[in-house]
Amino acid sequence: MSVGVIVLAAGKGSRMKAGINKQFLEIDEKPILYYSLDVFEKNNKIDFIVVVCSPDEEETIKSCIIDKYGFKKVKKLVVGGNERKDSVLNGLKVMDDVDMVLIHDGARPFINNRIIDEGIEYTLKFNCCACGVMPVDTIKVVDGERFSKHTPRRSDLIAVQTPQCFKYDLIRECHEKVNREGIEVTDDTSVVEYFGHKVYLYEGSYNNIKITTPKDMIMAKQIYENLFTK
Ligand SMILES: Nc1ccn([C@@H]2O[C@H](COP(=O)(O)OP(=O)(O)OP(=O)(O)O)[C@@H](O)[C@H]2O)c(=O)n1
Ligand SMILES: C[C@](O)(CO)[C@H](O)COP(=O)(O)O
């Protein structure tokens, strides 16, 4: 069985307002994207990695991250699209002879081996899965005027993270269809759900944050210290 990973790095990082793309911001002198790649590189169940990036960052990612840190499993660096789902499809299109694919946000540097291994295990069993955590806030469903319509039980809710893991043929087919039909999605589990497939949700980690705003950088440095320097 061949297992590939798509690491997404083709976003703009606009909410970070850093002047450079957030994936190049450093934690303990290494860029965020380094950490997102390193765990997959070292996991012996992962066969290869495809990195998806913006055209103007291709050279920097190659020289300052992939070559510099010797990521041997990164077999392809491809250009992404306007939306996250376009970037995923571009990554899927350059994969061949692959049975399973794990799709991961480059902006989530604190992925771990337990999450990767369980993702592979549950995909073998259920065809698609994603990790996530129970929200810490109470979540409301609202109407168009921001009045609360109802309050789902928190124990019924999961804030979904990445990696999101799929049998390759299934996710490729569903992403192609979503692209053709112009359906709006914010993650890859929604792509398969849209066509009626069931997605298993397993335990992620509260450390597996998506670095999005400047405050997340402060939190990321704290998480890093707790995980790696204590
Ligand atoms: N067209 C896009 C948009 C997003 N991403 C990737 O998807 C992940 C999650 O997206 P997000 O955190 O929203 O990143 P950005 O789009 O970079 O951030 P922003 O929305 O603040 O510009 C990131 O790793 C980002 O690089 C991508 O590959 N292609
Ligand atoms: C895929 C994702 O990380 C799951 O939580 C999330 O939906 C990405 O959203 P973004 O707005 O593209 O960051």
**Count of alpha/pi helices:** 7
The appropriate CATH architecture is Alpha-Beta Complex
Portion in helices:
25-40%
The CA-CA distance between the termini, in Å, is 37 Å
Tell me the series of helices and strands, N- to C-terminal: EEEHEHEHEHEEEEHHEH
User: What structural class should be given to the helix and strand makeup?
Assistant: alpha/beta
Stated plainly, the CATH topology is called Spore Coat Polysaccharide Biosynthesis Protein SpsA, Chain A
Please count the beta strands (DSSP E, at least 2 residues each).
11
What low-confidence regions span 5 or more consecutive residues with pLDDT below 50? Answer: none
Any idea how many domains?
1
Mean pLDDT: 97
SSE arrangement:
Layout (H helix, E strand, L loop, with lengths): L2 E7 L16 E2 L2 E2 H11 L5 E6 L4 H10 L6 E6 L4 H10 L6 E6 L7 H14 L1 E6 L7 E2 L5 E3 L8 E9 H14 L6 H7 L5 E4 L10 H15 L2
Parallel strand pairs: 1-4, 1-6, 4-5, 7-11
Antiparallel strand pairs: 2-3, 6-10, 7-10, 8-9
The protein binds cytidine-5'-triphosphate (CTP) and ligand LQXTBERG.
Protein name: 2-C-methyl-D-erythritol 4-phosphate cytidylyltransferase
Organism: Oceanirhabdus seepicola
Catalytic activity: 2-C-methyl-D-erythritol 4-phosphate + CTP + H(+) = 4-CDP-2-C-methyl-D-erythritol + diphosphate
Notes on the structure:
There is one protein chain. Strand 8 and strand 9 form a beta hairpin. This protein has a single domain (3-228), classed as Spore Coat Polysaccharide Biosynthesis Protein SpsA, Chain A (Alpha-Beta Complex). The strands form three sheets. The chain has a seven-stranded mixed β-sheet with strand order 5-4-1-6-10-7-11, sandwiched between helices. Helix 3 packs across helix 5 (168-181). The N and C termini lie far apart (37 Å). It is globular and about 50 Å long. The mean pLDDT is 97. The relative contact order is 0.17. It has helices at residues 32-42, 58-67, 84-93, 113-126, 168-181, 188-194, 214-228, and strands spanning 3-9, 26-27, 30-31, 48-53, 74-79, 100-105, 128-133, 141-142, 148-150, 159-167, 200-203. It is 35% helix and 23% strand. By secondary structure, it is an alpha/beta fold. The protein has seven helices and eleven strands. The structure holds cytidine-5'-triphosphate and ligand LQXTBERG. The site of cytidine-5'-triphosphate (CTP) has 20 residues, from strand 1 and helix 3.
